[in-house]
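2024-03-11 09:14:02 DEBUG pipeline.ingest accepted 1 chain
2024-03-11 09:14:02 DEBUG pipeline.ingest length=356
2024-03-11 09:14:03 DEBUG pipeline.predict start
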Amino acid sequence: MGKWDSLESAPPDAILGITTAFKADDDVNKLNLGVGAYRTAEGLPFVLPSVREAEERVVAEKLNKEYLPIEGHSAFCRLSAKLIIGDEDAHAKERIATVQALSGTGALKVAAEMLHLHSSNKDIYISRPTWGNHRHIFTSSGLTVKEYRYYDKANNNLDFEGFLEDIRGMREESTIVLHACAHNPTGMDPTHEQWSLILQAIKQQNVQVIFDCAYQGYASGDLDTDRYAIDLFLQHGLEVWVCQSFSKNMGLYGERVGALHMVAGSPSVAQALKSQAKVIIRGLYSNPPTHGARVAACVLGDPDLMSRWKSDVRAMAGRILGLRQVSNSFAVFHKGAVKTRQHFAQESKFASVAFS
């Protein structure tokens, strides 16, 4: 008998398994309701014109293929932090520790390992429901995953009172994962007033905040608007962590471009956080890939390309809004549940749109 003869096959991934089935189906009218990747009206992958131009510039430079430092591409780290953090005080005082990561998933994994190794409280709270990979990422790092109420399925609304009550019941120095915008999978985001109340409850409980930001630009069509919650928490002095992905807003799905940003109270603490994250990265994958980071840095660092990229993001968000308006003309029935026009109007554009 072989060593692995008793090993059972793992079940297919619930999300990516749908994509596999989609590719195998030869029906011309098929729709992929799985992974959240933008598609053209013809159902094809879309490369943003601004990103295509940036890639052509990068390739034309005929750069080498040397390893990046453990923390990643320096210009990418600096520019991505500016895009998502946007806190001039934190930047000026060098209180941000940034490491390049393998998109948002990789950023979450590095954050999870940081908590496992260095946090006195291993409890981490995720919304109910949430992105399907959150639980696996955190449990595989030895954290205790708990849930906070978020979505009232019966009424297709945010369960805000339950949300606040669960925050108030969290132990000190627990960690909470918040979706910065375009909550996945519900698309239901708190209002500005609700974000203020969430902030107050979290400050009272002294809870560590991780923002998962996979859809910056998609919720409103504006990159700055979609970081509202992050800005709010920073303005009130919270030392938040942000897991950032460029898969959706730059269409760099397969390049795995992302970052983990950790805001600290002082430059020395930021340096300590970065050094410990680098130790973790060294053990996971040594250093991140080069090409996608160069492309993203080219977009973020060139005023013309940046302007064009913002237009590309607005165009994608606008098209998704148009699809929602089409959906708004009828009710959607699924296993006895009904989404009315009002519910569609309350949800943000991307995460809950199956047609994107």
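2024-03-11 09:14:41 DEBUG pipeline.report The two ends are 48 Å apart (CA to CA).
2024-03-11 09:14:41 DEBUG pipeline.predict end
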